[in-house]
Write a structure and sequence with these properties.
By secondary structure, this protein is mainly α. The chain is 72% helix and 0% strand. The chain is globular, with a radius of gyration of 19 Å. The protein starts with 6 loop residues before the first helix and ends in a 7-residue tail after the last helix.
Amino acid sequence: MVREVKWTKYLWLSLLSFVTFMLEYLSIFGIEVIFLHVDIQNYTMQQRSIHCIIMVFMWAFFIGVLLLFSRKHYHFPERGSKRDKISLKNWIVTLACFIGCKIMTFIDWHTLKIIGEAQGKTVFQFCTQYLYYIFEVVLVVLIIIYGQKAIETLLKKEILIPFGGIILAMTCGQRFIRRPAVCFQ
């Protein structure tokens, strides 16, 4: 028998996902300064790659812990259910948004972003940067998912208002306004 989970539990998971995001500062100002004697203002391309690897391992560990905890204690996310199939209409909207995003980045970069970022980097540097991006996206998605689940649990119904995105904006939005991630520079 599954007991009712309070909405604050999901909100805490969303906020813990954000705190996991912020472990980057621990890496920059703790691990890298103390153990590697690296100064963020003077990163070389190789040191940025090392930073990305450190972050991938830290994030992977904490993402795993969050997901296992959530699954064990709250039975969320649920195992695949037939009712959660994505409709063709939603796939088309997603594809249209993706194409629009690619067009905007093409205009900004004057090439495909992935090609522009690959220029002047070794395969190792490029791969570590994109591993970093993947785990960063996973954390963003977790903040959105747990935030949305918190509000839907509070209201006791599924809603179309993107409260998970609003929680993301209130947490990570502040981080990106002040300073972009190290690997983006």
